[in-house]
Design goal:
The complex is a heterodimer of chains A (326) and B (302). In chain A, helix 3 (79-109) crosses helix 10 (229-257), helix 6 runs parallel beside helix 11 (260-266) and helix 8 (186-212) packs across helix 10 (229-257). Chain A has helices at residues 13-39, 62-68, 79-109, 116-123, 125-128, 131-141, 148-159, 186-212, 216-224, 229-257, 260-266, 278-287, 292-319. Chain A is mainly α and 326 residues long. Chain A has a single domain, classed as MetI-like (MetI-like fold). With 302 residues, chain B is mainly alpha-helical. Chain B folds into 2 domains: 2-62, no CATH class; 70-299, MetI-like (MetI-like fold, Orthogonal Bundle), CATH 1.10.3720. Chain B has helices spanning 2-5, 14-42, 64-71, 80-111, 117-128, 136-144, 162-185, 191-198, 203-214, 216-231, 235-240, 249-257, 266-286, 288-299; strands at residues 147-150, 154-157. In chain B, strand 1 and strand 2 form a beta hairpin. In chain B, helix 2 (14-42) packs across helix 13 (266-286). Classes of the chains: A mainly alpha (326), B mainly alpha (302). Chains A and B meet through helix 1, helix 3, helix 4, helix 5 and helix 6 of A and helix 2, helix 4, helix 5, helix 6 and helix 7 of B.
Chain lengths: 326, 302
């Protein structure tokens, strides 16, 4: 038996409900996407924007070739670097978010901690702040001369008699990599700090929920069986955390992969475009460079990348779906 | 042996308790540090362009930054409330449009069998994967080609208007609203509807009298999420709007912190950030129980 309410085969009722939304979506969502696909094979630019301007020329795959072979005539553009950095940015962030989130959830779940509810309420404050405010605030905090981060470092440094001039770090613009054998600019670390601040609380909320669902007698049973703390953490805690954390990690990966605000407002992609993400590059192509056709092709490439990612993550989440399936 | 069995479930030692408390306070400091810093800077006098140290309460603490924000936060002749009203129009209008269209579409997708259902679901899922930036070029070009002449608003280019920005936002928020509401409707038991159908109620009647009231928490949550993203929307408004009277809060904040904003006093930026953050944060805190309830139920697959 179908789970759906059976309506007469020729009934128009479902279509009457869905028609308004579908008509609006067809005009404002689907049509632009199709138009975008067409645009990506043309040389649509500023000259074609005016009223009565000539139609753009068909250029075939030229835009795609230029994007993928880094032949675009804009400064600091390299597709491979952009793509690899974007993947690394998302992976490194999510890994730290999950580890911190679980660790802090364990702390919040410990029977010896007082004022749990107060901490839980205050720890999620970063989530309430709009992304643009988070990004602009951290941009100012990492300012070389007036930023709170350098001032704080100088204050701590004074306790160890380190001169305050040591901490005049130009966090968001320094060109030399801080760790010579890791090819990442200082602004990556600044953005990582800002995004850790922003990202772990929600992970802790999810992990706390999963921890509270673990039956307490499992730990007692494990201890009777002679299991140590580490063994019961590995076999009980992690097993129960996995079904909640894996989907959330995947969600976090996609969100961080497309995290516009920090890359755009904090570092502005700098230095030399090295902290640019695919989404901020897509925005700059259209907004700053008025390369509409290239921007359209770039969006199609981005779509293919995101589709691939979601197909891969779909397999991961299916493979780790539930603990009772093991 | 009997004592060791229960050892780990006994009261933890005092040292453990102190260490736990210290760790929790240490984490709390890192969470609150940027928030307190913004508050502190916002209380500094406006002639202090950049903070000169870390003070909880700055020297000569004053509210003049807030007064300046309310009066005229940017170099454009618009007040905070004019900017906020623009953001409110865009956020409220897009949230209302996507939720009301969304709940109508979510009902048959969740409940009724009809031709094309799977196809529509796949299209929505595909669209949901795209970040808002991905449809910027076609929306800009298309809306730019439309000149409107409406009774009250007069003649205008759809791209260079809040209506155009609203349309661009709905292109992403409508699929999200449909998906979210459908997910919630899937979790509502069908018995009531089946009983009503047996009694001869029409689909329209069932929707109005049974489904709609039951879906209210999810409608509120979806509307709230749509409102929040509209309130701080940046990509479209920054790209589309050129007339200062149309500008939004997010655009003003971006202009106050960009590369060319070295002369803008940070007390002003900080006060503006706080005033931009407070309305949605207050609404969230007031309706927290309601919202988390709607989200939790919506996320559990039935």
């Amino acid at each position: 038996m179908s789970i759906f309410t059976r309506v007469s085969r020729r009934s128009l009722t479902p279509y009457m409900f869905i028609a308004p939304a579908m008509i609006v979506m067809a005009i404002v969502t689907i049509y632009p996407l199709i138009f975008q696909f067409w645009m990506s094979f043309t040389n649509y630019g500023l000259a074609n924007l005016r009223q009565g301007a000539p139609a753009p020329d068909w250029v075939g795959l030229e835009n795609y070739v230029k994007i993928l072979t880094s032949e675009l005539s804009i400064p600091n553009y390299s597709f491979l670097r952009l793509f690899l950095y974007n993947i690394f940015w998302a992976l490194s962030n999510v890994t730290i978010h999950i580890i911190l989130g679980v660790a802090i959830a364990l702390l919040l779940n410990h029977p010896g901690l007082k004022l749990k509810r107060l901490y839980r309420a205050l720890y999620v404050l970063p989530v309430l702040i709009p992304p643009i405010v988070v990004a602009t605030t951290w941009r100012n905090m990492f300012n070389q001369d007036a930023g709170a981060v350098n001032m704080l470092l100088a204050m701590v440094g004074q306790l160890f008699h380190i001169p305050p001039e040591t901490f005049k770090l130009d966090w968001l613009r320094q060109v030399e990599d801080p760790i010579s054998f890791i090819p990442l600019p200082l602004s990556y670390y600044a953005m990582l700090i800002a995004n850790i601040w922003l990202g772990w609380p929600l992970n802790a909320v999810v992990a706390t929920g999963a921890l509270q669902a673990i039956p307490k007698d499992l730990y007692e049973a494990a201890e009777i069986d002679g299991a140590g703390k580490w063994a019961s953490f590995k076999t009980i805690t992690l097993t129960y955390l996995r079904p909640a954390m894996v989907p959330f990690a995947i969600y976090g990966f996609v969100v961080t992969f497309n995290l516009f605000s920090l890359a755009y407002f904090m570092s502005a992609g700098g230095p030399f475009g090295r902290t640019e993400l695919l989404v901020t590059q897509a925005y700059r192509l259209v907004n700053e460079r008025q390369l509409y056709a290239v921007g359209a092709a770039f969006a199609v490439v981005l779509f293919v990348i995101l589709l691939t990612i979601s197909l891969i993550t779909n397999r991961i989440s299916k493979a780790t779906a539930r603990y009772d399936d093991f | 042996m009997t004592t060791s069995k229960h050892r780990s479930f006994r009261e933890p030692s005092l040292l453990t308790k102190i260490l736990l408390q210290l760790a929790a306070i240490g984490i709390l400091i890192t969470v609150l540090f940027p928030i307190i810093w913004v508050f502190s800077v916002s209380l500094s006098p406006l002639n202090l362009i950049r903070p000169d140290g870390l003070n909880l309460i700055p020297k000569d603490a004053t509210l003049e930054a807030y007064l300046k924000v309310i009066d005229r936060p940017t170099s454009n002749p618009v007040s905070f409330f004019e900017l906020a009203f623009n953001s409110l129009k865009i956020a409220g209008g897009t949230a209302l449009a996507s939720v009301s269209l969304g709940v109508l579409a979510a009902y048959p997708l969740s409940r009724l069998a009809f031709k094309g259902r799977t196809f529509i679901m796949l299209v929505i899922l595909g669209v949901l994967m795209l970040p808002a930036v991905a449809t910027l070029a076609p929306l800009f070009v298309t809306l730019n080609g439309i000149k409107l002449n409406l009774p009250i608003l007069g003649a205008f280019n759809l791209r260079n208007s809040q209506l155009g920005v609203g349309i661009a936002i709905v292109s992403g928020s409508l699929p999200f609203a449909i998906w979210n509401l459908k997910g919630y409707l899937d979790t509502i038991p069908r018995e009531l509807e089946e009983a009503a159908a047996v009694d001869g109620a029409s689909q329209a009647r069932i929707f109005r009298s049974i489904v709609l009231p039951l879906a209210l928490p999810a409608i509120a949550v979806t509307g709230f999420l749509g409102f929040i993203s509209g309130w701080t929307e940046f990509y479209y408004s920054w790209m589309f709007l050129t007339q200062p009277r149309d500008f939004t809060l997010a655009m003003a904040l971006s202009a106050m912190t960009g590369t060319y904003a070295s002369a803008i006093p940070w007390p002003l930026v900080s006060a503006f950030s706080i005033m931009l953050t407070l309305p949605p944060a207050i609404v969230y805190l007031l309706s927290q129980r309601f919202i988390t309830g709607g989200l939790a139920v919506g996320s559990v697959k039935g």
